[in-house]
Amino acid sequence: MNYQMNDDDKIENTNINQNEETTEVGNINYQIISKQKQRRWGGALAFNKSGNLLAAASKNDVKIWKFENGILTNPQFLKGNSVIRIIKFGQYSDFLVGGGSDEKIMIWELWKNNCKINTQLIGHNGRVSAIIISKKDDSIISSSEDGTIKIWINKDYQWQCKETLKCMTGPIYSVVENSNSDILASCSENKTITLWKQQRIITNNQLEWRKFQRIRNEDYGTKICFIGHDKLTWQPTSDGQLCIFQMNPMNFLFEIKKKIILGQGNYDFHYFQSIYSDISRLLIVRHKYRIYFLTMDENQEFQLQQTLIFSTNWNFAALSPNEEYFVTWDFQSQEFQVRLRNQINQQ
Fold this sequence. Notes:
- The protein is built from no helices and 31 strands.
- The protein is an all-beta fold.
- The termini are far apart.
């Protein structure tokens, strides 16, 4: 099923005011409490589920720090094979997954003293662009600029590729799953958003992913994020818009509902993926030099809470699982900036 996104759609547009300095307009805001130099450029940041470890990609390596009260200590080095762009912690097990430019997915078992690469998943023929780890740590979903999505499962302590999903043409820049883990959405260079649903096949009684919708856009986008199970955000590269899609309960297809105008300017560095946390329904997105913190209210409207302004769009971020800390690294300052959520004005 195709859905053409065009100017005839009845879409509500919302503008976000731009200022020349950091703005704090809502009940949620984050203030810097510590800084730490990191001169080797970074490619990704990630917290573990407990929030007491922070991992950072640093060219071909990964550093893991102990994180306590906003302070980074006791760095540990994990060696990779190429430039690492994506890192994710397991949900419950002590392992870290990374991907990058050499087409491989690396898995480090952190409980081992030497912390060497335990497993390499080989199958993509292009740079790995996104990684999802299942809630039970028993499967990994990866997208690649080779135009495929691969489903890896852990069977008898061995990882193997179970499925390969193919889009039409062009690199896939990101893949995300909804909160029910039964829908995948990917965005590609071919100006489409492709949606997949997990279905049980009668012939073999196995769960497999099936494509059920393709949304055609006027430009390609590199950032996509689910909000709950039935809302989806997507950012085109041609302008500073944030597009909000909503599932239609009648036909279960996603339709464009709102465009939020973030700012001006075109291409934005795509490795900063949007972040959503359900605790306070907090959505963190970036366009160019600005990082926006928005929350969704009871009427499903988005309210701007804070804007952080950097001097470069080469920056990366991670939100702690409890939303208490927000950590960034940017190329201009070449330092980690740890921000603590302001507790005074929270509701």
